[in-house]
Amino acid sequence: MRVLKYAILGLLNRKPMTGYDLSKEFSYQIGNFWSANHSQIYPELKRLLDEKLVVYNIEISGDVLEKKVYTITEKGRKEFLKWLNKDEPMEPTPKNVFRLRMYFSNNLDIETRIRLLEHQLVQHEEKLAFLLSEMQRYSGVPPFDSDDFGDYLVLDGAIMREKTTIEWLKKCIKICQSKTNCDEERN
Amino acid sequence: MRVLKYAILGLLNRKPMTGYDLSKEFSYQIGNFWSANHSQIYPELKRLLDEKLVVYNIEISGDVLEKKVYTITEKGRKEFLKWLNKDEPMEPTPKNVFRLRMYFSNNLDIETRIRLLEHQLVQHEEKLAFLLSEMQRYSGVPPFDSDDFGDYLVLDGAIMREKTTIEWLKKCIKICQSKTNCDEERN
DNA sequence: CCCGGCATGTAAACAGTTACATGATTGC
DNA sequence: GCAATCATGTAACTGTTTACATGCCGGG
C-alpha cells in the first residue's frame, strides 16, 4: 500500500523539507494517526527520488553541514492527488495491547485490574490535556482550502477518541470497584 | 514484544484448540483489538512448542485427517500470567489511513470530501450494528472470573469507539456541507 | 461428484523497530 | 569545552501480509 510514501508526499506538498524535518513532523499533529522514524524515512526518500516524485537541493547550514531539502515534483503531486481521491474500504480494527490484556482480565486480581486501568487513565488524561491545549490555537473551523483544515478535523477526532477512551476506562474501573465493595459488604 | 505469543497463550488458557480454531478466534470478539492469520499462527505455535509453553495431541476427524489440538502447559500459564500482570505504558496512537487522507483533505473538492466521509460512515454504522447485536447476549456484567468478563468489557469499548467514530464522521460531513450551502447562497 | 469449509504448512515480500554509525552546529 | 539537537545514513531483526501449496471432510 506504501502509505508512508503518500504521507511524505503529502507533507512535501505543503512545503519543501529535509528528511529530518519530516521525521519531526511525525511527532506533531500527524503523529496522531501516522508516524515513522528516520530509519524508514531516508530510504523512502531515496526511493521517491528514483521514482522522480521528489527532487532535492542542498543547503549549507553553518560552514560544512549539508542539508537535503526535498521538494515534490509535478509527477509526485499527481500521484499524491490520485491516491488522496481514492475511496477505500474501512480498515480492520487497530491492534491494542491494553485491550488484549483486559480481554484476559478475568485471570487478574480485582486490585490489579483497577491498578492497570488507573495507570492507563492518567496517561490518557495527560494526552487529552495536551490535545486540548493544541486545539486552543483554533478559534473556529479554518478555511476549507488551508493546511489547517485537515489539522483541525483530525485533532478534533483525536480529542473525541481520547475522551471516549477515558470514559471507557472509568466505566471499567467502576465495574471492578463495584465487585470490591460487594465483597467488603459480605465480610 | 511477542504479543501474538501471549494472545495465543491466553486463548489456549481458556480451552485447548487447533491452529485453525485460533485463527478463527481472531475473527470474533478478540478481532476487535488483535488478529493474525494462519501463516503467522502455525510458526508461532511451533515456537511455543519449542519453548515448552504448549503441547499438542493429535485427534483424528473422519478417517485420516489429523488435527493438532494444542494445550497450554503449566510453564505456559505462568509466563502468560506474568505478562498479563505487567503494567506497561500507553501505546503510541494507532495508525489510520483514512485520518491521514482527511489530514490532507484541503487538497480535495468539497464534494469528494463528503463522498469519502459518507462511505466511511455507512461502513462504521454497519460495524456498530453488528457489535450491538453481539452485545445482546449479555444481560448485565458477567461474573468477574469468567471468560465473558473480558469479552464484555472490550466489546463495550469497541461499541463506544464506533459510536465516537460515527459522531466524528457526521461532524466532518456537517462542516463540509456548511461550506457547500454557503457557496450556494452566494450564487 | 463437486463445492465450501476444515486443516496445516512454507516462501517471499513488505512494513516497521531498534541498534549501529558518524559528524556538525548552537547555545551555555 | 560540553551537551543537546541538527542531520544523514545503514544493518539486523521482528512483525505482518499475500501468495503458494496440499489434501480431507461433509452435505447437497
Offer a few descriptive terms.
7 helices; elongated; homodimer; mainly alpha; Arc Repressor Mutant, subunit A; DNA-binding; two-stranded antiparallel ribbon; 187 residues; 2 domains
Describe the structure.
The structure is a homodimer of 187-residue chains. By secondary structure, chain A is mainly alpha-helical. Helix content of chain A is 63%, strand content 9%. Chain A has a two-stranded antiparallel sheet. Chain A binds a DNA duplex (28 and 28 nucleotides) through helix 3 and strand 2.
SS elements, strand count of chain A: 2
State the low-pLDDT regions of chain A, or none.
none
Helix-strand pattern of chain A: HHHEEHHHH
Radius of gyration of chain A, in Å, reads 22 Å
Roughly how much helix do the residues of chain A carry, as a percent range?
Answer: 55-70%
Number of helices of chain A: 7
Oligomer: homodimer
Q: Considering residues with a beta carbon less than 8 A from a beta carbon on another chain, report the largest interface and each chain's count.
A: A-B, 72 and 73 residues
Content-based structural category of chain A? mainly alpha
Strands of the widest sheet of chain A, in order across it, are 1-2
Largest sheet of chain A: 2 strands, antiparallel
In terms of DSSP E residues, the strand content of chain A is 5-15%
In round numbers, the mean pLDDT of chain A is 96
Choose one word for the global shape of chain A.
elongated
The overall number of domains of chain A is 2
Terminal CA distance of chain A reads 59 Å
